Amino acid sequence: MKPLNTRSIWVNLRLFSVLILLSGCAAQWHKSVGEEGARYAFQFQRNNTAPTSGVVMIDEAQLAPGDILFSADQGLASRTLRFSGNTSVSHSFVYLGEGKIAEALGSGVRIMPIQNSMADSPLLAVYRYPGLTDVQVTAIQAFAEQHLGSPYNYFGIAKQTPYTITRKICELPVIPRAMRHLCLNTMAVVQVSPFQGNRYFCSQFVVEAFNRAGAPLTKTPPEWVSPGDLLHMRADDIPSVIPVKPLQYVGHLRCQTSLWQGSCTLADAS
User: Fold this and answer.
1) Could you state, in chain order, the average pLDDT of each consecutive group of 10 residues for the chain (270 residues)?
2) What is the CATH number of the domain that holds 193?
3) Active site residue 183
4) Could you tell me whether strands 100-105 and 91-97 are parallel, antiparallel, or unpaired per DSSP bridges?
5) Among 5, 120, 209, 240, fewest CB within 10 Å belongs to which?
6) pTM reported for the whole predicted model
């Protein structure tokens, strides 16, 4: 009988642990009440950008000012962000109305036609903050115009990178919800430590815009929030970042399957 190779076993265990951390996906018990009484199911975060009912294809005319858009492209940076964060999206931005969007890119905060994103992104999902008022929409538009040209928060992204990996410890399925949020907040305080400034990365810009409009998406500091975190703040999902109000699905301007997106099956029209 061959002796056990303890070194090989240790290496395999470490590799397995890394894979577990990278695939860490928050989960919790979900209660549903039907004719047969209450039922409980173990629900995981959903990577698909559509609800469980399927994709609804929309066009630009169905957007409303203040809508939040999520995208992913085929570039290396997008793929790296999606892999490290185990998420289907790598970018988020806000629709201003009249065919314009505001987003924080490597070149800084920009206002541009939404057609640019529709041409560049094979995946483009739209969610809406419920109850957004005209006054709040105007404030979001004013924030975008005021910060047009503000530089990109490269330092914030640099701090997000190790946090994206290590936070998986907090998001393992065995971690209870309250402990998960405490763990994430504690880790973010240590690794991200937000600061005030006029530099933004994409999801930070979106969260700050809603904060300034008096319609906060979450009480969590904007620099802690990734595009994937924003996506999971929707209805019928398991949030890593607690939303003030769950985001409501509007539809997809574009949809393409990928390792993370899974499928673009259309919702039943009936």
Assistant:
1) 54 46 55 63 81 95 98 70 71 97 96 91 96 98 97 89 82 79 86 78 97 97 93 91 96 89 84
2) 3.90.1720.10
3) no
4) antiparallel
5) 5
6) 0.83
